[in-house]
Amino acid sequence: MVVLGHESTIPVTMDDIIHHTKMVARGNKNSLIVADLPFMTYQVDPSEALRNAARLLQEGGAHTVKLEGGENIAPTVRRIVQCDIPVMGHVGVTPQSVNAFGGYRVRGRTAQQASQIVKDALALEEAGAYAVVLELVPAPLSRLISEKLTVPTIGIGAGPDCDGQVQVLHDMLGLFTDFVPRHAKQYANLGQTIRDAFCQYAQEVKDGSFPTTRESFTMDEAILAELEDL
């Protein structure tokens, strides 16, 4: 979504995910690679979901896949896990459901929402998910879910009591300075650094101070003289 400049994850395709996963896999040494199954690549049919999950491993080089949803996609998770493809779950605010939710807003503050998120997380664990992402969920609810599950929880905007945390690197590095989500912490301001670098480069090209002899290459003067006579 962020890398491709989309407003949401809805337009992302299997080919997009495979392309990006390949790049990660080529540079990876010993980290677990989790690839998201895009919108409508796993919701229609468990067999189709299995085929797409297999593509992410075979073609993309992922080690595991991630699916959004809870009780509604538990049978699909079970089908994929039965074929020895590890699955990470994702509940709370699920970005592929942004249109149904009406935006990226915290979920789980009402009794109905909180109860459903707990049921969703438990259903994913029962279906064989090895971990569950909790996104934009109140911290007390995340703590309760983390205590109920035997598999790790990974939080994003879900408080300090999850077993692990994940953030969007663009937020962490300050690549977009106009908007920082409340749940994110900016550890650098690389956006301004990058802008300053490009502005300096452009100015030096305009005023002729770049490139210099240091950034240029020489050749034999005799050969150059011969070329001038052509």
Automatic annotation (TrEMBL):
Keywords, ordered alphabetically: Transferase
User: To which species is this protein native?
Assistant: Geodia barretti (Barrett's horny sponge)
Q: For this chain's UniProt record, which GO biological process terms are given?
A: pantothenate biosynthetic process
**Domain of life from the UniProt record:** Eukaryota
Give the protein's recorded name: 3-methyl-2-oxobutanoate hydroxymethyltransferase
Please name the InterPro entries in this protein's record.
Pantoate_hydroxy_MeTrfase, Pyrv/PenolPyrv_kinase-like_dom, Pyrv_kinase-like_dom_sf
Keyword Transferase belongs to the record? yes
Q: Name one GO molecular function term.
A: magnesium ion binding
* Stored Pfam families: Pantoate_transf (PF02548)
Please state the span of the N-terminal signal peptide per the UniProt entry.
Answer: none
Which PANTHER family does this UniProt record tie to the protein?
Answer: 3-METHYL-2-OXOBUTANOATE HYDROXYMETHYLTRANSFERASE (PTHR20881)
Its UniProt pathway annotation is: Cofactor biosynthesis; (R)-pantothenate biosynthesis; (R)-pantoate from 3-methyl-2-oxobutanoate: step 1/2
Q: Which reaction does it catalyse?
A: (6R)-5,10-methylene-5,6,7,8-tetrahydrofolate + 3-methyl-2-oxobutanoate + H2O = 2-dehydropantoate + (6S)-5,6,7,8-tetrahydrofolate
NCBIfam families tied to this protein = panB, PRK00311.1
| GO CC field | cytoplasm
Q: What is its EC number?
A: 2.1.2.11
Of which family is this protein a member?
Belongs to the PanB family.
